[in-house]
Amino acid sequence: MSIINHDRIAHRFTTLVDNHLAVLDYTLTGHVMSITHTGVPQAVGGRGIAAELMRAAVTAARVGGWTLNPVCSYAVEYLRKHPEDPHQQHVDDLLDEALDESFPASDSPSVGGSS
Q1: How far is residue 30's CA from residue 89's CA, in Å, rounded to a whole number?
Q2: For residue 109, with 0-12 CB atoms within 10 Å meaning exposed, 13-18 middle and 19 or more buried, which class applies?
Q3: What is the C-alpha separation between 44 and 9, in angstroms, rounded?
Q4: Average pLDDT, stretch 61-82?
Q5: Torsion angle, CA of 66/68/71/75, rounded to 10 degrees?
Q6: 3-class SS string, 32-48
Q7: What sections of the chain are H helices per DSSP?
Q8: If 17 and its partner were Cys, which of 1, 44, 78, 80 is the partner (CB 3.0–4.6 Å)?
Q9: Residues 68, 35, 78: CA angle, nearest 5 degrees
Q10: What is the mean pLDDT of residues 32-52?
């Protein structure tokens, strides 16, 4: 996992991998984050760096309350493969909460096991 930097003024996420700079550029109009460009140098391609940049952008959009608008082809494909479904996230959160209530961390390891 790379260290992702977010320059809010330049509207850019960056990471440096093996002295090669990978970038994700976006514009922000109102509450819409349009991802306009992702670029990973060929020398470090194929390592999932663009996906890491996209995850950082998606997280920033979620925290900022922004809607995502994928403009560049990579962003379109990434979001197609990783759909942001708020309803599904809510369901997942409820299931996690139910599991936490059913199996609290303070239970001994034998809870739920066979004896």
Answers
A1: 24
A2: exposed
A3: 26
A4: 92
A5: 130
A6: EEEEEEEECCHHHCCCC
A7: 49-64, 73-81, 86-102
A8: 44
A9: 75
A10: 95
